[in-house]
UniProtKB/TrEMBL annotation, chain A:
This is Urea ABC transporter permease subunit UrtC. It is found in: Cell membrane. Keywords: Cell membrane, Membrane, Transmembrane, Transmembrane helix. It is a multi-pass membrane protein. The chain crosses the membrane at residues 21-40, 52-73, 80-100, 150-173, 180-198, 230-250, 271-297, 303-322, 329-346, 366-392. PANTHER family: HIGH-AFFINITY BRANCHED-CHAIN AMINO ACID TRANSPORT SYSTEM PERMEASE (PTHR30482), SLR1201 PROTEIN (PTHR30482:SF4). It comes from the Bacteria. It comes from Antarcticimicrobium sediminis. Its main location: membrane. One of its GO terms (cellular component) is plasma membrane.
Automatic annotation (TrEMBL), chain B:
InterPro entries: AAA+_ATPase (IPR003593), ABC_AA/LPS_Transport (IPR051120), ABC_transporter-like_ATP-bd (IPR003439), ABC_transptr_urea_ATP-bd_UrtD (IPR017781), BCA_ABC_TP_C (IPR032823), P-loop_NTPase (IPR027417). It comes from Antarcticimicrobium sediminis. The lineage of its organism: Bacteria, Pseudomonadati, Pseudomonadota, Alphaproteobacteria, Rhodobacterales. One of its GO terms (molecular function) is ATP hydrolysis activity. The gene is urtD. Keywords: ATP-binding, Nucleotide-binding, Transport. It comes from the Bacteria. This is Urea ABC transporter ATP-binding protein UrtD. The keyword Nucleotide-binding applies. PROSITE patterns: ABC_TRANSPORTER_2.
């Protein structure tokens, strides 16, 4: 093989050089973060309000969970319609600590004026009745066992979604459930989780959910304008790191294999790859990514309740990724940012109403209709989504060989014959 | 020569239809074998059984020196043990380059973590290039495999099989839809492959089988009708009756 002169890359260049889009993305994200910070109310010029900083921070979290969705759907071909369940679990995990710790400080302060110093039992009872009074309970459910510890609840942000995904994925993939059946199963999973959380005795305050999450315990003196920036930066950092991680994951042979699984799972099996194992790894990793995104999102939203993990949330997630362009990481980010910002504009009542004849279109109600129509339109006419525009700009087109014969000679198989 | 694969007394039925009926088949290490038979003779089902895609209702399939039973193993496990399979229609990953396709097929650790941490070395790139040269795709290394012609896709698939370094290669109708020149190249590739491993070729085309110049097994209604050289089996009266129709 010495006579082969084809250039074999003996030294691998860094990831960002092999994939310029990663570098472009990171630079854009950094500039965006810097720009927003400079214009913010907290430490900048004050052009951007604190509530809009929060909206932007939440949007970055959506972008992160959309990355996860793109990895599992766009790259590995698993149309999971349950990834917002993992997002919600991450939110609940961090919310438990935020709520516990804040309530504890309030209780301790209020008992400080008592004549006798409060016993730990009194404090614990006080916190429990404060938190669970709304659902008529006054004891801590077992799942709150670690709520006093920030490190343990941070671990739960990763462990809870990861474990659920691992168990669910193991059962589903092992039975070779694929395609639309798997999608339905994931919908059932997120619906079951939502229904469970809606119960008052689920231990997570039923439909009240966890609230007051925007207040960081012990930092009451720090204004929200500053806290919002902290979370905005953290979200931007997480998105950047998540993007790098995903780009690394899909760049090498692992990426090759999962895209191959998406395109022809059976063939990959005959190559000797344990397809189920690969799917499980991707499913679990993306669930963890979704959990991290959720843990950053809900402190900015301030409240989490079971409606957040309702099946529709996961469907929206799929719509974002489809509109942005699946199978490319920046597509997912663009889709999530574009659609969720547009959504908050339309549903925020800022969009002007439209009068067509007798039809009076108020966007607060009609936005979902518009979103649904755009989803159908993208699926039918522009399957590559917004990200496909990049290809147009770069004039990269995959050749359309439909109708051409499959071989070089006139006697070769025709496409029609080959499909039979 | 030692037996590499032994299929004995295997039967499979789909909804009452016996696709394979008490089939017994044996192939030695490094042997080239052609399997012929009319449509519905059970040629593809036979391959499905060996590669673990279909579980037989009865019978035994054993493989290797230790005569490991293949019946309880998953498809990927069987492939890892050294049984490669080429499908009737070329199935390459069209979205990926020729080099990526070959790199994926190279014989390496297949578990997810090992794959995640795998970074190709110079030797791996050289092996991919050598394989591409062997199958006549050295110039197309960085083209998307979806852009290749039908014949080139077939070769790429054969190249991927060679990259797997299997001990037993099952090839389903490799010459379908190929031009004469492409067929000749394919015959050479298969004969070359059979020098270092056992190869079973399922084929319709008699000229192609003649060019392979090897022992032939004739299947009919799910069992072996005749076995021997091509001249021997084509003189067999039963074979003439059911297959050649003369």
């Amino acid at each position: 093989m010495s006579d082969l002169t084809l250039s074999a890359p003996t030294r691998r260049r860094p990831l960002v050089l092999r994939h310029p889009s990663v570098l472009v993305f990171l630079v854009v994200l950094a500039l965006f973060t810097l720009g927003v910070t400079l214009l913010s109310e907290g430490i900048g010029l004050g052009v951007i309000s604190t509530s809009f900083i929060k909206t932007l921070g939440k949007t970055l979290c959506f972008c992160l969970v959309a990355l996860a969705m793109d990895l599992v759907w766009g790259y590995c071909g698993i149309l999971s319609l349950g990834h917002m369940a993992f997002f919600g679990l991450g939110g609940y995990a961090i919310g438990m600590w935020l709520m516990y710790e804040r309530t504890r400080r309030i209780i301790v302060d209020s008992l400080a004026t008592a004549e006798l110093p409060a016993t730990p039992q009194e404090i614990s009872d006080g916190i429990a009745s404060q938190i669970f009074g709304v659902v008529g309970a006054s004891d801590f459910p077992p799942i709150w066992a670690f709520a006093h510890s920030l490190p343990l609840q941070l671990a739960a942000v990763i462990v809870a979604p990861g474990l659920l995904a691992l168990v669910f994925g193991w059962l589903a993939f092992r039975s070779r459930v694929t395609g639309v059946y798997l999608s339905i199963l994931t919908q059932a999973m997120t619906l079951a989780l939502a229904l469970y959380l809606f119960q008052n005795d689920s231990g997570l305050r039923g439909n009240n959910g966890l609230s007051g999450l925007q207040n960081l315990p012990g930092l009451d003196l720090v204004p929200q304008s500053t806290v919002s920036l902290w979370f905005f930066w953290a979200s931007a950092l997480a998105l950047g790191a998540g993007y790098l991680f995903c780009a690394w994951l899909v760049s090498g042979k692992f990426g090759s294999v999962i895209r191959a699984i998406r395109d022809d799972e059976t063939r990959v099996r005959f190559l000797g790859y344990p397809v189920e194992g690969f799917k499980l790894v991707v499913f679990t990793l993306t669930a963890i990514l979704a959990g991290i995104a959720g843990a950053l999102y809900y402190p900015q939203a301030g409240i989490i309740n079971p409606a957040e993990v309702a099946p529709i949330a996961s469907i929206y997630l799929a719509v974002w990724v489809a509109i942005g362009g699946r199978g490319r990481l920046y597509g997912a980010v663009i889709g999530a940012a574009f659609v969720s910002l547009l959504s908050s504009w339309f549903t925020g009542g800022q969009a002007p109403d439209l009068k067509i004849g007798s039809l009076h279109i108020q966007w607060v109600d009609w936005w979902t209709v518009l979103l649904g129509l755009s989803f159908v339109a993208v699926t039918l006419f522009a399957p590559k989504g917004i990200g496909g525009l990049v290809d147009l700009a770069a004039r990269i087109k995959s050749p359309n060989r439909h109708g051409a014969d499959l071989g070089p000679g006139a006697g070769a198989l025709r496409e029609r014959e080959a499909d039979e | 020569m030692t037996t590499l694969l032994e299929v004995s007394g295997v039967s499979v039925s789909f909804d009452g239809f016996k696709a394979i009926n008490n089939l017994s088949f044996r192939i030695a290490e490094g042997e080239l074998r052609a399997v012929i038979g009319p449509n519905g003779a059970g040629k593809t089902t036979f391959m499905d059984i060996v590669t673990g895609k279909t579980r037989p209702n009865e019978g035994r399939v054993t493989y290797g020196e230790k005569s490991v039973s293949l019946l309880a193993l998953s498809e990927s496990r069987i492939a890892q043990m050294g049984i490669g399979r080429k499908f009737q229609r070329p199935t390459v990953f069209e979205d990926q380059s020729v080099a990526d396709n070959l790199m994926m097929a190279l014989k390496k650790d297949r578990n997810p973590l090992a794959v995640l941490l795998f970074r190709p070395k110079a030797a791996d790139h050289a092996r991919v290039e050598a394989l591409a040269g062997e199958i006549g795709l050295a110039d197309a290394l960085h083209r998307k495999s979806g852009e290749l012609s039908h014949g080139q896709k077939q070769w790429l698939e054969i190249g991927m099989l060679l990259a797997q370094e299997p001990r037993l290669l099952l090839v389903d109708e490799p010459a379908a839809g190929m031009t004469l020149a492409e067929r000749e190249h394919t015959t050479d590739l298969l004969k070359q492959a059979a020098k270092t491993r056992a190869v079973v070729v399922v084929e319709h085309d008699m000229d192609f089988v003649r060019r392979l110049d090897c022992k032939v097994t004739v299947l009919h209604e799910g069992s072996v009708l005749a076995e021997g050289s091509l001249d021997h089996v084509t003189q067999n009266e039963q074979v003439i009756e059911v297959y050649l129709g003369r």
